[in-house]
Amino acid sequence: MYGNYQNTAANGSGAAANAAGWGSNGVTAGISTVNGALGTGNFTIGRGSTAHAMADLIHRESANTGVTASARTEVQLQFTVAGAYTFQLRSDNAPSGAALG
């Protein structure tokens, strides 16, 4: 089975994630359950976990669940008022460089 699945649980997205400031992604700690063709796995998600970290947790149990995962970051900017805008593009990758923008 293939699909485009997103973490829409309270501990992974929503208003808290959208309102998070720089250095915080809004992910709260919790338990996520993955049901696969081979079985079920429960994963402890830490506060501030990245999508990459969550995908790694899923991969560690893929032999038991049959589920694999990948992660990528996307953003959709929507400007509702005409005018000039400024934003900074940042990353938490090491080594840390100056913000773009």
Which helices and strands occur, and which strands form pairs?
Layout: H1 15-19, E1 30-35, E2 40-45, H2 51-60, H3 62-65
Antiparallel strand pairs: 1-2
What topology, given as strand order, has the largest sheet?
1-2
Radius of gyration: 16 Å
Which spans of ≥5 residues are poorly predicted at pLDDT below 50? Answer: 11-17
Q: What fraction of residues sit in β-strands?
A: 5-15%
- Major β-sheet profile: 2 strands, antiparallel
Number of helices: 3
- Give the strand tally: 2
User: What is the general shape?
Assistant: elongated
Percent range of helical residues: 10-25%
Tell me the number of structural domains: 1
State the end-to-end distance.
41 Å
Written description of the protein model:
With 101 residues, this protein is an alpha+beta fold. The chain has one domain (1-101). It is 19% helix and 12% strand. The chain is built from 3 helices and 2 strands; from the N terminus they run αββαα. A two-stranded antiparallel ribbon has the order 1-2. A hairpin with a 4-residue loop joins β1 (30-35) and β2. Mean pLDDT is 75; it is low at 11-17.
What attributes characterize this protein structure?
alpha+beta; Flagellin; flagellum; 101 residues; elongated; cilium; bacterial flagellum; single chain
Short structural summary:
This is Flagellin. With 101 residues, the chain is α+β, with helices and mostly antiparallel strands. The protein has three helices and two strands, in the order αββαα.
